[in-house]
Design a protein that fits this description.
Blueprint: H1 2-6, E1 10-12, E2 15-21, E3 26-32, E4 37-41, H2 48-51, E5 56-62, E6 65-66, H3 71-83, E7 98-101, E8 110-116, E9 119-126, E10 131-136, E11 142-144, H4 150-153, E12 160-164
Antiparallel strand pairs: 1-4, 2-3, 4-12, 5-6, 5-12, 7-8, 7-11, 8-9, 9-10
Amino acid sequence: MAQLEAQGFECFLPKYKSLREWSDRKKEVEQPLFPGYVFCRFEYSQRRPIVITPGVLQVVGCGRTPTPVEEREIEAIQFAIASEVPSQPWPYLAIGERVRIHTGRLSGLEGILVNFKGNHRVVLSVSLLQRSVALEVDLAWVASLEKRNEMQTQPITTGASVRVTG
């Protein structure tokens, strides 16, 4: 990231604090919130200095077309980081996705994730009766059942984002 900034590019690497334990000590360390990604603002036509920077693998997008991350998403992440509220990486869950509850009394149940009146719910269905029931859940209790291509679920950036090594 320092090499990109030295070239005059605006970059953003959101980090979170985690407690690491070794056999002889514990230490709080900062780690990237989106490992392997740096958000970088640039004009795609001026991408050459970026893609030849050591450590940069590619500009992220759909196929060969770069796709910018929405400004409001970047601003939301920047606001969250600035708040210093504890954060951590979390699997991307989309509304409508099949999930399994892995915590609490509902552990093991599978259903469809929905959002109703600002609350997340897992919907269980009885197909023969064509009836369903919705259970209010915390997102921390569920995990996706759908296997997703890691590159399709990673965030992309304003201007574009770059995939980096390390």
